[in-house]
């Protein structure tokens, strides 16, 4: 049993877009790929990849010991994120968010983390999108960050809550003008006939808000009523450091009924 979350030092990490323009492009080694053909039951031939990567690279960047971790997993995450930024990890704020229907049908997608505070992890979305609708029906969700360059992963499980309209509007006004127009124009996750339909909606909303030149960001566009922030409040956070021979280091924090965090090492 270790430190109470309420005693955690307040922190707020605002995220911006990080672009590592000078980074060497990394491409997977495809020399181990073997391709065959098979039938799918209808007589049609399909390509089958066997032994996708026969000799996977070893993880040798570092180790993770208990003394390197603090009492609060959110503070640990903030330190790891700062290190990822310093190491020029490409899009360190990119995270896979998984939601589920009340029946347990899971869906996942990549989003951008926009804020970390002492309550949890914040991203923004269209509340009418698939993830928004699933969150409205089932508040349980998870996140997974993978920073390949550092051979690290962070997995977060918890419940979600909406940000206030004022909080969402404050962030919305920092977005580029075209992104604000796009939030109105895109009926996210709904079927559309073609790209022209989307482009036409962008033109319509640009006119509605009096935007004559989309390249001049001098207009205030209101936040859509169906758009805003989501905060994942963690009940479990796992830190993973890749090690050689698949004997990885894993530590998990679980929130107890009393609100404290309990830390344990997990077998790889």
UniProtKB/TrEMBL annotation:
Q: Is Oxidoreductase one of the keywords UniProt gives this record? A: yes
What are the names of the required cofactors? Answer: FMN
Query: EC number(s)?
Result: 1.4.3.5
Pathway per the UniProt entry = Cofactor metabolism; pyridoxal 5'-phosphate salvage; pyridoxal 5'-phosphate from pyridoxine 5'-phosphate: step 1/1; Cofactor metabolism; pyridoxal 5'-phosphate salvage; pyridoxal 5'-phosphate from pyridoxamine 5'-phosphate: step 1/1
Describe the location of the Pyridoxine 5'-phosphate oxidase dimerisation C-terminal domain by residue ranges.
227-268
* GO molecular function terms listed in the Swiss-Prot or TrEMBL record: FMN binding; pyridoxamine phosphate oxidase activity
Q: What does the UniProt keyword field contain?
A: Flavoprotein, FMN, Oxidoreductase
Which Pfam families has this protein been placed in?
Answer: PNP_phzG_C, PNPOx_N
Give the matching Gene3D superfamilies.
Answer: Electron Transport, Fmn-binding Protein, Chain A
Record-annotated Pyridoxamine 5'-phosphate oxidase N-terminal domain positions: 81-206
- The yes or no answer to whether the keyword Flavoprotein is present is yes
GO biological process terms, alphabetically, are: pyridoxine biosynthetic process
Which PANTHER family does the entry link to?
PYRIDOXINE-5'-PHOSPHATE OXIDASE, PYRIDOXINE-5-PHOSPHATE OXIDASE
Q: What is this protein called?
A: pyridoxal 5'-phosphate synthase
Classification lineage = Eukaryota, Amoebozoa, Evosea, Variosea, Cavosteliida
